[in-house]
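For the sake of clarity, the format in which proteins appear in this thesis is described at this point. Each number in the token line that follows is a code from a learned vocabulary of backbone shapes. One such record is shown here in full, so that the layout can be seen directly:
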Amino acid sequence: MPILQPIVDLAEMLVQKGITDVLVSPGSRSAPLTLAVARHPRLRVRVMADERSAGFVALGLAQQSGRPVAVICTSGSAVYNLAPAVAEAFFQHIPLLLLTADRPHEWLHQQDGQTMDQIGVFGPQVKRSYDLPADYQHADARWFIERSVNEAIHLSQLAPAGPVHINVPLREPFYPAADESFQFGPVRVIETLSTQPTLSPDTWHTLLDEWDQTERILIAVGQLPRDPALSQLLRQISEEFSVPIVGEIVSNLAHNGQFITHTDTFLSGLSADRGRQLRPDLLITLGGSFLTRNLKTFFRAYPALRHWHIQPSIDRITDSFQSLTTLIPAESLAFLQKLFADLDYQRFLQGAEDEDAGAYLRQWQTADQQAARLIHQTLDAVNQPLTDWSAVQQVLDQLPENSILHLANSMPIRYANLCGLDERQGIQVSVNRGVSGIDGCLSTAVGAALATERIVTLLIGDVAFFYDRNALWSAPVPANLRIVLLNNDSGHIFRLIDGPGRQPELVTYFETPHGYTARNTASDARLVYEHCDSIETLTSLLPDFFQVSEQAKLIEITTDKLVNQRQFSTYKAALNVHYAESDQ
């Protein structure tokens, strides 16, 4: 296959640039790409018939490994099916390499099958798009391909990481003759050295002066992968400098007696006086997006006088609370390590400490403890029925230590955030909160389970599950995957938020009841299936559910959406009473 040797070389370049995993969706036009990666001895190639699922499985793999994952699909509308995963990867800063087969461009608009304009098809949702030549006879064409692939793989990992698209026009013949073999020879790899931004001494002195002159300092952590070193450092900063550390379940900051994790509860219905008491003078943010409206509303309604945001790159200004004063181009851990060391030394030189320095921290911690008690009382009510919320609490309490929890969007992630995790469990939380859609949550969890031997538990609602069940179609489901399906036969979130919940069209046009169960889907995918509709049954099933086995498992929890709604309404009413009494 000498005319397609550059495609064979492309597979070798993936390996040389550190890519080990490839997702392939079957197709004829993409056959040269598929055969090249499938026959390479150092690539793990998995097949997913549904391109949309393939994109999200690749996302889950890359989310866990931190390395780019390649995705191959055929030409035409197949390419568009990658778009949801591409958008999520772009806004979550996950490296993907998208290799889309195409017809040579002269065949566009000539009524040929599976042909559309694929150049720049993903628009601004990718870091860059490349279009390779269809003809390789001239040496410059091969040089261009080589250079472009080197650049694309590097760019996918350059902060902020993200998806990169390579469009590959291919001419026939697509398939090698019986006597042809592939030669994975040497390829030219261009090494790109990494750099870290550094702040000048004058800049450091300015930041330290701002800190030193500020009475109320707060650090808020957005969506981040689990990093025990960062958590430990933040705990030290909080303990030694009386700084509230605010996070959510997506921040991978769990309950430890120091961090503030119940803000969605105690920032609800906040009075103006209480809001001003809790407002920081200096707000320091790091990580990605925040989950809850109450937390975001608080920081916007009571903006800090000064706001530092730490992010690895400065290609865009992230000012989600509309209060930013300083954008700090740095890795969060490295910046905070130096900040802590300098502040610690500065305090050593100064000697005396402010006796009332901990008052601000105690306000936040007291509010957090009260919120935790209120949630506990809601879930521990006498004769408590099985609800989505109480089921989530049971599941979180029994998760295997040091396992991975993937939270699907809509209500599961919100219930989990209300419940929280204990730091001693060592749970790593993964989510799709780049674009926050429900469309690929199951596929992403499958990808996460393929990337590790640890138990991966997916907590997912019924609409998200049935929408994405092609994730279980093409390949054997990894045995370490545990799916907890909350089935209330509707898009339950619309009943709990004010807008659609008040409309007469709620059921038909928003909740869309379906009547499905997962029993047949589990059977088709060869999953161990259990069903429960009571707290007692769920509690008895979970220990065995989390045991290591040779098959993936699914437990379907059936709840009544009206009972779910009553419990949540009781919680909201208790909040109103509590904070009305607090304001008196």
The longest helix spans residues 561-582.
